[in-house]
Specification:
Chain lengths: ~525, ~350
């Protein structure tokens, strides 16, 4: 009797919350129950080795390039001083707002031989000037690095801000020059942040689908897509997904480990404006030029190119069709936002009030999905969903019921973005002291009524942050939407993918601008908040 | 069953354990309706856990708690806090920061009409003297005001029992005393049964009808303030409540004890040492107020340390056999260190421990 009394509705909820992620992971593992030898033999001989090598090469190069950009620009904007430093300090975060699949075709459009920027260079400087071919491995690395380096930049900037100048002075007091102190004191101290940022970048690179698709660069994600949608072998898609999952697990375990080493020293030691190193003029120009080039190709050039394409065709571009995609994207994002934020709120509340092993595990599992690439998730979830549909069909329902419905799409989004919504809400909730809960309960207000009357008003900012982040992430999301959407359902992201894979970049520009504009919202919030922390 | 009615709240052999680690064991005491009890003890003694158990926030690993003839906690059963009608005032006040003062007070009023809950909350605001602050947000209030709002909020639903967890610890000393008196008056006026937890004996003396001294998870003594001070049940209680020292003594009969300061007849209540025999070596509790300074006295002691306290000095005195005692002496008797001064004993309660 006691046992049943303890099994509350909240515990049932906690179990249900961890179910979708578990289903997706189990779904991927079922890949090996049934091997389609004909297809798999072909894949293993001709496709997979190439895809694995391509993926690993890309991950490695993007990690190196992003770390270089991030460390140099973070060092320059926090510890040094040069004209434009204050501007670059926040402007260098902006490329984050541009999704990789937009960055990719905008850069290609600007930098290829007949592209706007290269044409401009030829006309204004020299007709013999030819840039290296952008439609190459280097181009993929460039496009991905430019959208992803802000992750590392933000982390490393924080590290330098709290310990940069001080560590430099410690080095100098021990007889090292500035250069020696940088290499021997500051850089080693910032290493946990650099490593942490790079591992995040590696996870994003592993998960990327849209950027590599623009360059026709075959990685594991595009191979998953192709083996399902071109070879029509869902089983092979699952098998490749399990391979990709293996890489993801390794990287995310490393990432989790690296986070333990990130300890901020006292913020009172933060770099003060007057203590920055004023660079001599030549170095100052070089610093300014470096940040300027990154900002130019990372933000101005792609945005300029999109505008250049979009503006002349503005009237013809703003068709009913465009607004339909817009409506599709917005309504889908709003729906996903509402559902995911509501569940994240309930999850955070349940974890707080239950405070049990079950709650801990439920939180761990249900927020695991942020590490899973959209392609893996899509196929992983579809496997069990198909099985359920099969079962329902045998019971006499008209199949398929779940497959190809919006339910699958929303389920996949929830798995992928639960962590995005959960962490700002949990952060806010942690600041509410336990005695507030006890006070409310001693006044006979508990459960959902307590959540609504006490917690919700106190964590509104966290809930709002969660809503914005999920909204924007769903709007930008490509592979899940592409692979699980109901037939005929279109969003801006899918439209951009379709148009850009057909080379119709001009027509993709307007939807792309819309997405970038929405993507700027959280980035601006992030910049404003970072500013407030600095002051 | 007249005894049942008298014991409005009673704890019977209550034990609490976290992850098989025993925090409290065998706690028994009871309160009558309208009485104010106080749990006194050093930090980590388990007093807050006990309070939380009464409030329903900790399950019992043994024993039973009854309130108004209803079992509210026992092993494997904990009535949820929200169903207990037990009010609570927290150390950090735990006011809801998004609600105004009056909204906070109204929070726990359920099933009343708008005008009824207005009347009730305004009445309490008047009682705590914060009528003019009713529309103010909690963060705009001083610590003492927040404390009073927390009290009003807990009292508003007319709880069966009120629990106060170190309610004055975040306030400065002067405020503590005046607020303590106000709170006691309000509780008595509203006939609220209450239990307070504190580590400060002065708070306990000012507020409580009965005091329980806890240490190391056990309730050592449950008694009136007077008895706790003058008839402590063991050396820990004697040492924790008030100041004092233990002198060596020897029983010369079952009721008389010989010390270096003379021979006393013992009237102590300490039941545990009733089987004492003549010839037993014992400890005798000497409080600073037991020793009177008298220049003419034949008995003298050497001043080894002195603490000026304004109206009086607290002298540490060394006796001829090098035992030490404390004495409170009016501060116009200004004696230097190493000076010998005359003392006289005036002991109403001779407390003897084995």
């Amino acid at each position: 009797m006691v046992y049943f009394k303890r099994f509350s509705i909240w515990q049932l909820f906690l179990v249900l919350m961890s179910l979708p992620t578990t289903l997706a992971l189990v779904g991927v593992l079922t890949a090996w129950l049934d091997i389609d030898l004909a297809v798999f033999g072909h894949l293993f001989e001709f496709v997979i080795p190439n895809a694995v090598l391509n993926t690993l090469g890309l991950v490695l190069c993007v990690a190196i390039v992003t770390s270089l950009i991030a460390v140099i620009s973070a060092w320059l904007t926090t510890v040094c001083d040069f004209p434009g430093r204050a501007f670059f300090s926040w402007a260098l975060i902006l490329p984050m707002a541009i999704p990789g699949y937009v960055m990719a075709f905008a850069l290609v459009g600007a930098l290829e031989y007949t592209g706007s920027f290269q044409t401009y260079l030829r006309e204004s400087i020299s007709s013999s000037l030819i840039l290296p071919d952008v439609y190459s491995f280097g181009g993929v690395v460039l496009a991905l690095s430019l959208t992803l380096y802000p992750y590392t930049y933000l982390l490393v900037r924080n590290a330098f801000q709290t310990q940069g100048k001080q560590s430099l002075e410690v080095g100098q007091s021990l007889g090292l020059s500035v250069r020696q102190s940088f290499w021997r004191v500051s850089l080693p101290q910032a290493r946990p942040w650099i490593v942490g940022g790079s591992l995040l970048v590696m996870m994003e690179t592993l998960a990327d689908f849209g950027t590599v698709a623009v360059f026709n660069y075959d990685t594991l994600t595009t191979t998953i897509y192709k083996s399902w949608f071109s070879l029509f072998s869902f089983q092979s898609a699952l098998q490749i997904a399990s391979l990709l999952l293996l890489f993801v697990i390794v990287v995310s375990l490393l990432e989790r480990q690296s986070r333990h080493k990130q300890r901020f020293t006292n913020a009172r030691n933060a770099v003060q404006a007057r203590s920055r190193i004023l660079l001599p003029s030549l170095q100052a120009y070089l610093a300014c030029a470096f940040c300027g080039v990154i900002f130019f190709i990372g933000f101005l050039l792609p945005i300029g190119q999109l505008l250049l394409w979009a503006i002349p065709h503005l009237s013809s571009g703003l068709t009913d069709q465009f607004w339909r995609y817009m409506l599709g994207s917005f309504s889908l994002s709003l729906l996903a936002m509402t559902i995911i934020t509501a569940f994240a709120l309930l999850l955070a509340f349940a974890a707080r009030t239950q405070n049990s092993y079950l709650a801990n595990w439920s939180v761990k599992i249900s927020t695991l999905g942020y590490a899973l690439p959209g392609t893996v998730l899509a196929v992983g979830l579809l496997a069990p969903i198909a099985a359920i549909d099969h079962y329902l069909a045998r019971l006499g329902f008209a199949a398929p019921i779940l497959q190809g419905s919006i339910v699958v799409m929303l389920l996949a989004y929830s798995v992928r973005f639960m962590a995005v919504a959960f962490s700002p809400i949990e952060n806010n909730l942690l600041r509410v002291t336990p005695s507030i809960d006890a006070a409310s309960r001693s006044l006979s207000v508990s459960g959902l009524s307590m959540l609504w009357r006490v917690h919700f008003p106190m964590i509104r900012v966290g809930v709002l942050t969660a809503m914005v982040l999920v909204f924007v992430d769903v709007m930008k999301e490509l592979p899940i939407t592409l692979m699980t959407r109901p037939f005929g359902f279109n969003t801006l992201a899918v439209r951009i993918y379709e148009l850009s894979s057909e080379g119709l970049w001009q027509r993709a520009a307007l939807p792309a601008l819309a997405i970038v504009l929405v993507g700027l919202i959280p980035v601006v919030i992030l910049i404003l908040r970072a500013d407030k922390v600095q002051q | 069953m007249s005894t049942e009615v008298e014991h409005y709240l009673s704890l019977n052999e209550v034990s609490i354990a976290y992850d098989s680690k025993q925090v409290l064991s065998g706690i028994s005491f009871s309160l009558q309706r309208g009485e104010i009890g106080c749990l006194l003890g050093p930090s980590g003694c388990g007093k807050t856990s006990l309070l939380r158990a009464i409030g329903g926030f900790e399950p019992l690993s043994g024993g039973r708690i009854t309130l108004n003839n209803e079992v509210i906690s026992q092993m494997q059963y904990t009535l949820a806090p929200e169903q207990r009608q037990i009010g609570m005032v927290f150390q950090d006040y735990a006011l809801f920061p998004h609600l105004t003062v009056i909204e906070n007070v109204k929070f726990g009023l359920h099933g009343l009409s708008q005008s009824e809950s207005d009347t009730r909350s305004l009445y309490l605001l008047e009682q705590i003297g914060l009528m003019d602050k009713k529309a103010v947000m909690p963060h705009e209030l001083s610590g003492g005001e927040q404390q009073r709002v927390a009290l009003a909020r807990a009292l508003a639903p007319q709880p069966k029992l009120l629990l106060l967890d170190e309610p004055f610890s975040n306030l400065d000393v002067e405020l503590r005393e005046s607020l303590g008196e106000q709170v006691r008056a309000l509780l008595k006026q509203t006939q609220t049964t209450a239990i307070m937890v504190t580590h400060d004996q002065h708070e306990a003396f000012a507020m409580a009808d009965s005091i329980g001294v806890l240490n190391d998870g056990a309730l050592l003594q449950w008694d009136s303030a007077y008895a706790i001070y003058h008839q402590p049940i063991n050396a820990f209680v004697a040492d924790f409540v008030g100041q004092g020292v233990m002198l060596n003594g020897e029983m010369v009969s079952t009721t008389e004890v010989q010390t270096t300061l003379g021979c006393f007849e013992r009237k102590s209540i300490a039941a545990t040492i009733d089987n004492i025999q003549p010839g037993d070596r014992v400890k005798v509790l000497i409080r600073p107020d037991d020793i009177i300074h008298q220049d003419s006295s034949e008995l003298t002691a050497k001043v080894v340390a002195r603490h000026f306290r304004g109206a009086e000095f607290l002298y540490h005195l060394e006796l001829d056999n090098h035992e030490r005692v404390l004495a409170l002496v009016p501060s116009h008797h200004d004696h230097a260190i190493n000076e010998k001064i005359g003392i006289r004993l005036e002991i109403d309660h001779v407390v003897v421990f084995k």
